[in-house]
Amino acid sequence: MRPVTIADISKGLVTPDTLLLLKTSTLGLRYATQLLTRNDAGICLRSKGGITLPNEIWTMILDFIREGTRGTREGTRRKKDKVCLVKADLVAASPNTMLLRCFRHKFDHPADEMFLIGITDSRSVEDFEDYLACATPSAAEKLGSKLPKLDRLSGPDNTFDVVLDTKSADLCLYTFEDAADFIATIDDGDCWVCGGERFICPGCTGGVASRFDAFMGCGVDLACPLCMGIEFSAEHKRYLEYYYHEEPVEKFQNDMREEVEDRLEELGYPVYVPDGAWIGEFGGAARENP
After folding, report:
1. Strands (E), 16-96
2. Which residues have CB under 8 Å from 59's CB, separation 6+?
């Protein structure tokens, strides 16, 4: 995902029809931090119990909260952020600040079903990614795969004000860069292609890999083209094909492993990379026959 910036709004890269992701769990942290930076306003923060603390103490508390929300590189998936889908209207703007009013949206589909089960090939992934940039009923009708109806929710609990500026470090509003972002954040990582494993054997999918231009020989672990991203999977496939019958030098192995680890971490998944994702078929055979 990529944070929404003032330039995105000014240049029309993000419009009122763009479907965005809002981290509601970060809103309070972001708002408190913005207040603390406005020293000239004479604003004094109070706790729910009415206790007033020096700004230095509040800064330490906020830093502690930030540290607790960061994921770790190894082990289980990092704590899931509270997120929702929104569209944003520009309310007010100055050279360094913009006020956006965000309205929660929700797809009308059963919570126990995978949302992107209808995304069945590379073309439908591209169509869905285009739809995220302009999520209108007319755009939905043009899709090759049918999407559930997108509803705008009403009421104060479904309306959020977000101030964009050039100083805040606590980001909360994002654009989706690809379908993999959507799966990781909104669909809770559910993926019908790999079953949540994040990797596939590209020669053993019964034709599914071919629909995503991901087919190649067996004996390797290819990044899933749906939940890890079409482009990332294609890059990973080129590496595995090139070194399919010969073992890459250690530097290239380490570089590829780190790229896959970075992608898993970026999407919020547990950082575990099977050997077949960076050593390839030759290395797998060498391990089986030492």
Report:
1. 20-23, 83-94
2. 36
With a threshold of 0.85, does the pTM exceed it?
no
End-to-end C-alpha distance for the chain, whole angstroms: 43
| Amino acid identity at 180 | A
Residues 6+ apart with CB under 8 A from 76: 270
Question: Is the separation of the CB atoms in 100 and 164 below 8 Å?
Answer: yes
The mean per-residue pLDDT over the stretch 204-225 comes to 94
Q: Are the CB atoms for 178 and 229 separated by under 8 Å?
A: yes
What separation in angstroms does the CA of 172 have from each of 122, 177, 179? 29, 15, 19
Under 8 Å between Cβ of 73 and 270: no
**Are 190 and 119 a contacting pair, CB within 8 Å?**
no
Distance between CA atoms of 269 and 258, rounded to whole angstroms?
A: 14
Residue 161 has a pLDDT of 87
